[in-house]
Amino acid sequence: MTAALESDAENVFGKPQQDERNLAAFRERVLEQGRALYRDLPWRRTRDPYAIWISEVMLQQTQVSRVDGRWQRWLDRFPTVDALAAADSADVLEEWQGLGYNRRALALSRAARAVSASGGQMPVEEPALRALPGIGAATAAGIRAFAYDLPGVYLETNVRTVFLHELYPAAEGVPDAELVPLVRKTCPKDASNPQDDPRSWYYALLDYGAHLKATVPNPSRRSRSHARQSRFEGSHRQKRAELVRVLLAHRSEPAGGASFDVLLEELCNEELAAGRNPLTASEVADLLAELSAEGFCYKAGNIWRV
Questions:
Q1: Strand partners, 258
Q2: In the prediction, which pLDDT does 19 show?
Q3: Do the Cβ atoms of 202 and 227 come closer than 8 Å?
Q4: Could you give the domains of the chain?
C-alpha cells in the first residue's frame, strides 16, 4: 500500500480522510494490480448482457474454476434469454445441478420469462434490472458495468476485499454503508478511456481481490456483512438439494416422477450411506411441502414431479 494510503488508513473507520489525493492513489494502485493480475475469463470476451447475467449469478459463492465450463454448457443449452424463457423449469434445474442454491435457477427462469414477455431485450437501467426475480444491487451493477460499460456500485466479495485491504487495514466490522460511497466515487463515470472505464475498473478490482484472498488473511472477514458459511453436509439445505436431485433422476421414467414411498426410501439410503440417521416420513413430507410451495415440484395423483 502506498505511503499516502497508509497514513490515511490509520484514521479509518471513524471518518477516514478519504480526500481526492488518497483516492487517486488508491485507484492508481488498483489499476496497476489489475493489469498485472488480469484473468482472461470466457465471460469477459462478450458484452451480451444475457450471457454476463448468467455468469454473474453462477459466480455467486461458486469458484471461478467450477463456473468455467458450466457457463459455456449453459449457453449451449439456453443460448438466449428467449431460449431460457421457453425452457421447462425442470430442464433449468437439471442444468443448474452442482452450482448450489437451486432457488437461483428458478429465479433465472422466472426473470427470463419476464424479459422475454417484454420483448426479449435485457434492461439497461438499474431499477428495471432489479425488478427482475433474483437480481439484486450487485448483479444489476455487474450487468451494467460488463455489458454496457455503465457506472454503478458493484460491491461483491472481491471488490469488498480490495477496499478493506487498502483503505481499512486495521478496522473490524466495517459496514457496507461505509464502503458504498467509496465504491461509487472511485468508479469511472463513463467509458471515454478504454483502459479505465467501469468495465476495466471492476475487472481490476475483481482480479486484485481474488489475488489478495489467496495470498493474505481474507480482508473480507473484517466486513460487518461477512458470515461464515454454514456446514452444508447434513444441513436442511443439503436435504432439500438431495430431494431435488432424486426428483430430477426420476423425470425420464414412465410416470415422470416418483411416489412418496420411493422418495422416502432413496433419501433414507442417501443419508445412511453418508453415515447419518435416516429421514422420517414426516421430515420428507415437510421437505416436499416446502419445495412444492416454492415451485420446485408438484404432485400428480400419487406421483411427485419436478
A1: 304
A2: 74
A3: no
A4: 3-37+151-222 (no CATH), 42-148 (1.10.340.30), 236-305 (1.10.10)
- pTM equals 0.90
Q: Please state, as a whole number, how many other Cβ atoms lie within 10 Å of the Cβ of residue 87.
A: 18
Kindly state the cell numbers that stand for 184.
Answer: 461509487
Among the listed residues 34, 12, 7, the one whose alpha carbon sits nearest the alpha carbon of residue 204: 34
What is the distance between the alpha carbons of residues 169 and 6, in angstroms, rounded to a whole number? 9
pLDDT, tens digit, for every residue of 199-243? Answer: 999 999 999 999 999 999 878 888 877 766 667 788 999 999 999
- Which residues have C-beta within 8 Å of that of residue 77, sequence separation ≥ 6? 87, 91, 95
141, 126 contact by CB (below 8 A):
yes
Residue showing cell 459496514: 175
- Spatial contact of 111 and 139, defined as CB atoms under 8 Å apart: no
The H or E element spanning position 114 is helix 102-117
C-alpha closest to that of 98 among 234, 244, 198: 244
Query: Which SS3 state, helix, strand or coil, does residue 38 take?
Result: coil
Average pLDDT along the chain, 306 residues, taken 10 residues at a time: 44 52 93 98 98 98 95 98 97 96 97 98 97 98 98 96 93 92 95 90 98 90 73 89 97 96 97 95 98 96 97
pLDDT recorded at residue 10: 43
- Residues 70, 74: Cα–Cα separation, whole Å: 6
Active site residues: 56
Q: What is the DSSP letter of 234?
A: T
Grid cell in block for residue 261? 414411498
Please name the helix (run of DSSP H) or strand (run of DSSP E) that holds residue 56, with its range, or none.
Answer: helix 49-58
Dist CA 94 CA 108 (whole Å): 13
